[in-house]
Design goal:
The chain is of the alpha/beta class. It has one domain. The protein contains 5 helices and 5 strands. The chain is globular, with a radius of gyration of 12 Å. The two termini are about 20 Å apart.
Length: about 110
């Protein structure tokens, strides 16, 4: 599974989670730093990424448009990078089930 970390998350997540999600990228890594949500959404859709964000806009967009792409919405407030790593690690099974469910549009974890 390939995760695309939104601008509001640390680029260090790619490295810190590479053992579980080896093909993941940060929006900055793919030329989408400060890009609007439409561009991030289109990129994720074209390249088969799951968007990971704290931004409620992606959550709302997933209701309107549905997948692809899928969205993981992190509900951890201003948690730091290591808190986010722990959150994603502790929900690894849920994330894998979510990815396999073709009808699921978003997963809220927090």
């Amino acid at each position: 599974m390939k995760l695309l970390f939104d601008e509001n998350l640390s680029p260090n997540l790619v490295r810190l989670l590479s053992h579980l999600f080896p093909e993941s990228k940060h929006v900055r890594d793919v030329g989408l730093a400060a890009a609007d949500d439409d561009l991030v959404w289109a990129y994720a859709c074209r390249h088969d990424f799951v968007i990971v964000s704290k931004d409620s806009d992606f959550h709302q967009r997933s209701f309107v448009k549905g997948p692809p792409p899928k969205v993981i919405w992190l509900r951890c407030g201003n948690g730091g990078t290591h808190e986010i790593v722990e959150l994603l690690l502790s929900h690894q099974t849920h994330i894998e089930i979510f990815q396999k469910n073709s009808e699921a549009a978003f997963l809220e974890i927090g």
